[in-house]
Write the structure tokens for this entry.
Amino acid sequence: MEMPRFNPDVALADVSAALDEAGCAIVENLVDEATIDALATDLEPAIDARWIGVDEFAGFKTKRVLGLMALSAAAPLALGAAEALLLPHCDAIQLHVTHTVAIGPGEKTQMIHHDDGIWYVPDPKPPLALHCMWAMTDFTAENGGTQMVPGSHLWPADREPEESEIISTVMPRGSVAFYSGATWHGGGANNSNGPRIGALIGYNRHGGHLGWIDHGDPYVVLEDKPGASSRIF
Ligand SMILES: O=C(O)CCC(=O)C(=O)O
């Protein structure tokens, strides 16, 4: 299955339908060059200063900066997609995680996984999270564009992806890839000469049934400064 792909003027209903069917979707060029340039400039010192990963999951040539901060009205499509996926099953949505993933040259493929596995909720379960991977550099098959398995959000718990079912998320800088917490995915190997940088913003459910699910970014308050990430998220 391919990843559904849209232009920036896509209707929320079309993104929402794609998430129901494929568990993932790309919206190309959702923010303009100037916005993504400003964001990159703000985040660059934090990425430069960050240590690289130290295990198979985090990677050995990948830098992760947490605490990108806050929701803003500037990306209503992202919030709308999160609400459309999650709100039918809970009281409210909340910010779950905000971090950049800068995959360095030479990094290997990350273990393929689905993010809702961290909550140990037995199947069948409602959608628990929506992740939005904003491309701060172009995402290509060569530089580690997120490996994605469209349709896998509907699989039974004991089914794992075959190699032939995994595709690379290919999208220009300024685009966003949405994927459900149930969709199998992982960072790709970076066989290029430069970093592949993505800003990963996750939303999850708050309150009601499964209301114990908390947000996963302990640095939201501690590390954040106004500015950078509130430009688009
Ligand atoms: O960097 C990516 O493309 C995906 C990262 C990811 O899935 C993770 O770290 O959990």
